[in-house]
């Protein structure tokens, strides 16, 4: 298998162009005259009580709404509508160093995990359409495309075209991936029947660009923990997949045994943000990335979330003592 370097679009429309040329989105007052000062005082008191009750109710409603609309951004609690913008800023800041930082943070292990994801656990078929979500720099999509190219070379007269769609909410990440595809001459793979498209879209809602039951396989690697509503993203994956389509998610997870977990925590919180500061001049973004890993559900809970979205045959494999886990499911 070829090894690739580690891991624009001006609208939310799917840009279906060639590999290297794809271009790239809140009573009136009713005053009554009362017959006596006494009755006026009583009514005023009632009105004041009513107003206080209304204000208390409105305040409680606001508090309730604020509570319901909060989520986590790393270890911080933030309004839901703010998280997407904050995550977007993180990846805008790190896009040009993203692949290099992945190599440094994982000791290149992420490449092995992605190789295991594509090929060992995921076998795309020629003529299919495959969606890689939060795949900005193309690391997973390129592996899918390469796998499909080999299948096409084994069936040169199939007359079929395989399509790989890279989707990401961040245009900066997509631009890095698109430039990588140009440098690697991946446009030439279209001659082998493999076509690569780039899509700027939100994992929680791809309805404007990806029809129901149109995708043969859905992958997401190291991206789902960054979405605001993980359950919505999984349900969206279920929506776009054809019956029989496979869902595959590679994500950081719960390390076991405890002794290794202690070392892993020390390394994550003491070393990774410092590497980010030195290499990418960005300590805070990598502090968030470390915290977001700790906030992500452990293997069994995430498995249940996938099942709750409607997937069947849900299972997972822990890799490297649970540093990452690979979850899969089938839409029936």
From TrEMBL:
Pathway as given in its UniProt record: Cofactor biosynthesis; ubiquinone biosynthesis
Reactions accelerated catalytically: a 2-methoxy-6-(all-trans-polyprenyl)benzene-1,4-diol + S-adenosyl-L-methionine = a 5-methoxy-2-methyl-3-(all-trans-polyprenyl)benzene-1,4-diol + S-adenosyl-L-homocysteine + H(+)
Enzyme Commission number: 2.1.1.201
SUPFAM superfamilies tied to this protein: S-adenosyl-L-methionine-dependent methyltransferases
GO MF: 2-methoxy-6-polyprenyl-1,4-benzoquinol methyltransferase activity
Subcellular location per the Swiss-Prot or TrEMBL entry: Mitochondrion inner membrane
Main localization of the protein described in the UniProt heading: mitochondrion
InterPro entries: SAM-dependent_MTases_sf (IPR029063), UbiE/COQ5_MeTrFase (IPR004033), UbiE/COQ5_MeTrFase_CS (IPR023576)
Pfam families attached to this UniProt entry: Ubie_methyltran (PF01209)
CDD domains: AdoMet_MTases
Record flagged with keyword Methyltransferase: yes
Topology in the lipid bilayer: Peripheral membrane protein
Keywords assigned: Membrane, Methyltransferase, Mitochondrion, Mitochondrion inner membrane, S-adenosyl-L-methionine, Transferase, Ubiquinone biosynthesis
GO-annotated biological processes: methylation
UniProt: S-adenosyl-L-methionine binding residues: 137, 168, 202-203
Coiled-coil ranges (or none): none
Low complexity composition-biased segments: 48-59
Stretch list, region Disordered: 42-69
Gene Ontology CC annotation, any one: extrinsic component of mitochondrial inner membrane
Assembly notes: Component of a multi-subunit COQ enzyme complex, composed of at least COQ3, COQ4, COQ5, COQ6, COQ7 and COQ9. Interacts with PYURF; the interaction is direct, stabilizes COQ5 protein and associates PYURF with COQ enzyme complex.
Family designation: Belongs to the class I-like SAM-binding methyltransferase superfamily. MenG/UbiE family.
PANTHER family: 2-METHOXY-6-POLYPRENYL-1,4-BENZOQUINOL METHYLASE, MITOCHONDRIAL, METHYLTRANSFERASE
Stated role: Methyltransferase required for the conversion of 2-polyprenyl-6-methoxy-1,4-benzoquinol (DDMQH2) to 2-polyprenyl-3-methyl-6-methoxy-1,4-benzoquinol (DMQH2).
Name of this protein: 2-methoxy-6-polyprenyl-1,4-benzoquinol methylase, mitochondrial
Organism the protein comes from: Acrasis kona
């Amino acid at each position: 298998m070829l090894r690739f370097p580690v891991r624009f679009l001006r609208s939310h429309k799917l840009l279906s162009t060639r590999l290297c040329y794809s271009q790239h989105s809140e009573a009136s007052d009713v005053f009554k005259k009362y017959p006596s000062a006494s009755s006026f005082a009583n009514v005023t008191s009632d009105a004041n009580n009513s107003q206080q009750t209304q204000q208390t109710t409105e305040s409680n409603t606001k508090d309730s709404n604020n509570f319901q609309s909060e989520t986590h951004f790393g270890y911080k609690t933030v309004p839901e509508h703010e998280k997407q913008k904050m995550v977007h800023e993180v990846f805008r800041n790190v896009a040009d160093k993203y692949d290099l930082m992945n190599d440094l943070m994982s000791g290149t292990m992420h490449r092995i995990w992605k190789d295991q994801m594509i090929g060992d656990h995921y076998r795309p078929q020629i003529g299919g359409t495959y969606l890689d979500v939060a795949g900005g720099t193309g690391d997973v999509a390129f592996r899918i495309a390469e796998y499909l190219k080999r299948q096409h070379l084994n069936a040169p007269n199939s007359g079929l075209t395989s399509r790989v769609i890279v989707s990401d909410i961040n245009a900066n990440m997509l631009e890095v991936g698109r430039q990588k595809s140009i440098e690697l001459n991946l446009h030439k793979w279209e001659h082998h029947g493999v076509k690569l498209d780039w899509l700027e879209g939100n994992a929680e809602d791809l309805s404007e660009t990806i029809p129901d039951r149109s995708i043969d396989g859905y992958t997401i690697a190291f991206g789902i923990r960054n979405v605001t509503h993980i359950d919505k993203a999984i349900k969206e994956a279920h929506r776009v997949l054809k019956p029989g389509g496979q869902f595959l998610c590679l994500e950081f997870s719960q390390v076991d045994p405890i002794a290794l977990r202690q070392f892993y925590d020390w390394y994550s919180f003491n070393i990774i943000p410092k590497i980010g500061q030195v290499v990418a001049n960005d300590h805070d973004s990598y502090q968030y990335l470390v915290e977001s890993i700790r906030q992500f559900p452990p293997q069994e809970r995430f498995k249940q979330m996938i099942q709750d979205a409607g997937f069947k045959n849900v299972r997972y494999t822990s890799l490297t003592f649970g540093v990452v886990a690979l979850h899969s499911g089938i839409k029936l």
